[in-house]
Amino acid sequence: MIEMELVGVRVELPANQPIVLLKERHGTRYLPIWIGAVEATAIAFALQGVETPRPLTHDLFVDVLGQLGAELSAVHVTALRDGTFYAELHLSREGRTLTVSARPSDAIALASRLEGVPIFGAEQVLEEAGLEIEASDDEGEEGVDAEEAVRQFREFLEDISPEDFREQ
């Protein structure tokens, strides 16, 4: 598993399809995952610190975990099959670990609400669907800045669709 960081949520034009964008923590690969509008909104709200008058579904789940004395210890994006990404929630409670299958969008929405929950991507998923974005010479050791990454990602999106990730 490769540790990832959540870059954010973008909208692929002209289809207006939301995408959550993950990046290797210690690398140059990005992982775009097409998601639903509700999950995109939930992730964006969490990243922007927006609080709603009533808990959204992902907020409710976080509250339930807390009431049960469980914590989300990690999110793993585990597979890409027939154009569909798969993930797992790794939960811990009283020294026990429980793994629950989840949609990556829901898993990331939960992780985005909790401090310090790592997100990992399987090497095979990154090999299959990852996008390599190299730093240009004038960007120094820090690598690709956010604006440049978004620009390169948008160029990538102009020539790709969800069907491109379906197995032949």
What's the short story on this structure?
The chain is an alpha+beta fold. It has five helices and eight strands; from the N terminus they run E-E-E-H-H-E-E-E-H-E-H-E-H.
Uncertain stretches: 137-143
> Share of helix among residues?
25-40%
Shape: globular
Q: How many helix segments? A: 5
Q: What is the straight-line distance between the termini? A: 25 Å
Q: How many distinct beta strands?
A: 8
Strand proportion, as a percent range, falls in: 25-35%
User: What value does the Rg take, in angstroms?
Assistant: 16 Å
Largest beta-sheet characterization: 8 strands, mixed
Structure description:
- With 168 residues, the chain is of the alpha+beta class.
- Helices cover 31% and strands 35% of the residues.
- The chain has five helices and eight strands.
- Strands 6-5-4-7-1-2-3-8 form an eight-stranded mixed beta sheet.
- β4 and β5 (84-93) form a beta hairpin.
- α1 (37-48) runs parallel beside α3 (104-111).
- The two termini are 25 Å apart.
Reconstruct the topology from this structure.
Blueprint: E1 2-12, E2 17-24, E3 29-34, H1 37-48, H2 57-68, E4 71-81, E5 84-93, E6 96-102, H3 104-111, E7 119-121, H4 123-129, E8 131-132, H5 146-158
Helix pairs in contact: 1-3
Q: Key terms for this structure?
A:
alpha+beta; 8-stranded mixed sheet; 8 strands; 168 residues
